[in-house]
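Recall the central idea of this unit: under ordinary conditions, the amino acid sequence of a chain determines the structure it adopts. In this exercise we apply that idea directly, starting from the sequence alone.
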Amino acid sequence: MKKLVLVATFLVIAPLAFSSQIMTDCPAAMATIGPTSGSGTVTCPGLATPGGTINFLELDFKYDADFGFNQGSVEENHDVLGTSLDAFDNLIFVVVTDLNRPHLGSKTTTPPTANQLAAVAAGPQITWNYQNATGSAAGATGDFRWIIDFTPSGPAAVPEPSAFVLMGVGLVGLSQVIRRRRPGRGATAPSP
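Accordingly, the structure predicted from this sequence is:
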């Protein structure tokens, strides 16, 4: 019975503790590959710091290329401009080929500094680079997304009434199962 009470308590309290995320997508950095190397700089929209406790700041990135019908490869990396955002740089070139595309990655700081949050709020710039394009590589792209994960301050969100109804039905059903398994409950002794 104690275990049942603990499980029921967990099921009620666990959904109330939550975090939220806000994000912004940066314009794609694209290049038609003529020379075997090149770069581009994009300015991301500013992402205002939300109220509450900031859990982490993350930069997701995707490197891709267009190879047509033939084989090819290209190496890509990026540099987030500004010293406060150096933790989000990916300065090692990643090889993208026609067989292993796109390349997805992320850089995260937990918790972020005030300077990092201010730089993201101001609209950071990202320089994307490609080099050593070979074969049928015709174009390359770099896509970027900033994410702030936070726990809102203030009162916790109120679950929908339907969630409480479903949980109540489940608890009633669980109590009926437990009641049926207990021997000698609800049975009356025959009278002589």
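The radius of gyration is 27 Å.
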